[in-house]
């Protein structure tokens, strides 16, 4: 769902377990490397329990609906032309953006343009199915390198968050990774098991009332073994809807650009 118009407040607190009403948390922790690799408001939202391997986005129509080539935007087809994407910007530092279930790359485009304006080269792409999501992310990383990016960060929403966390645990050349409402498990991908192997700065973002995803974010934050951040904000917004909160967008932008 979309967030309300009220200005949201975020507080810096330690991550604690308490009974009663959940608290708002922004936790920033730097640790030494370990040496090893239905919302509460009643608004319906796509579940993350799909068991089919059908296309999660509007494959084939997405690019016509939201993206067109111009001086700063390039349409790309990669991984044997199975994947479609949009590259925005021309920076040497790159970001791959992975969408949530029943969505497509269009959901990331406004934020992708913010990243490009900050000097990043961004690739937002469509998953063709819910199978091999982490492999699709790594294929997008390879394509963005081919397009000219060197250091590459990952960000994903919901199932895309699960995918980027698993992909980051498999590729030592990723610079940092962010998950917005990513579940610990999706379609055989176990981000909960992968997170302790991620060796780069990691950001977990979730809505306080977005259960069970907020619980998954907290659990994965606790299990992370490198520099990590946890951002829990009021409400039940999920995935890229969290970017409706200006402070979330600013925090994610600062994290992905390393500023």
Provide an overview of this structure.
- 47% of the residues are buried.
- The protein has helices at 62-66, 109-117, 133-146, 159-170, 191-194, 213-223, 246-257; strands spanning 25-29, 73-78, 83-88, 93-98, 121-125, 151-157, 174-180, 185-186, 189-190, 202-207, 228-233.
- It is built from seven helices and eleven strands.
- The radius of gyration is 17 Å and the shape is globular.
- The strands form two sheets. A nine-stranded mixed sheet has the order 1-11-10-7-6-4-5-3-2, sandwiched between helices. Strands 8-9 form a two-stranded antiparallel ribbon.
- The longest helix has 14 residues, at 133-146.
- The chain has 259 residues and is α/β, with parallel strands linked by helices.
- Mean pLDDT is 81; it is low at 1-60.
Task: Report low-confidence residues grouped into runs of 5 or more.
Answer: 1-60
> Rg from C-alpha positions?
17 Å
What's the SSE pattern?
EHEEEHEHEHEEEHEHEH
* Average pLDDT number: 81
Query: Which bin fits the share of residues in helices?
Result: 25-40%
What's the helix count?
A: 7
How far apart lie the N and C ends? Answer: 29 Å
- Please count the beta strands (DSSP E, at least 2 residues each): 11
Strand order of the largest sheet: 1-11-10-7-6-4-5-3-2
Approximate strand percentage:
15-25%
- Give the overall silhouette: globular
Largest sheet: 9 strands, mixed
Structural category: alpha/beta
């Amino acid at each position: 769902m979309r967030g309300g118009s009220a200005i949201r407040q975020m507080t810096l607190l330690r991550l604690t377990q308490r009974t009663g009403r959940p608290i708002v948390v922004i936790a920033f922790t730097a640790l030494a490397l370990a040496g090893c690799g239905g919302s509460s408001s009643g608004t319906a939202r796509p579940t993350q329990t799909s068991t089919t391997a059908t296309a999660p986005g509007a494959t084939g129509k997405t690019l016509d609906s939201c993206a067109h080539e111009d001086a700063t935007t390039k349409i790309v087809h990669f991984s044997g032309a199975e994947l479609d994407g949009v590259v925005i910007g021309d920076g040497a530092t790159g970001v791959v953006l992975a969408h949530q279930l029943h969505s497509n790359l269009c959901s990331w485009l406004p934020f992708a343009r913010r990243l490009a304006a900050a000097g990043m080269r961004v690739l937002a792409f469509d998953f063709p199915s819910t199978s091999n999501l982490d492999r699709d992310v790594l294929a997008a990383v390879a394509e963005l390198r081919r397009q000219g990016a060197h250091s590459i960060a990952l960000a994903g929403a919901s199932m895309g968050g699960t995918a980027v966390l698993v992909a980051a645990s498999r590729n030592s050349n990723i610079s940092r990774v962010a998950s917005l409402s990513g579940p610990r498990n999706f379609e055989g991908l176990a981000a909960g098991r992968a997170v302790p192997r991620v060796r780069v700065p990691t950001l977990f973002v979730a809505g306080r009332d977005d259960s069970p995803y907020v619980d998954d974010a907290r659990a994965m934050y606790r299990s992370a073994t490198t520099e990590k951040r946890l951002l829990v904000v009021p409400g039940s917004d999920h995935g890229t809807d969290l970017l409706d909160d200006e402070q979330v967008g600013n925090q994610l932008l600062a994290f992905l650009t390393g500023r």
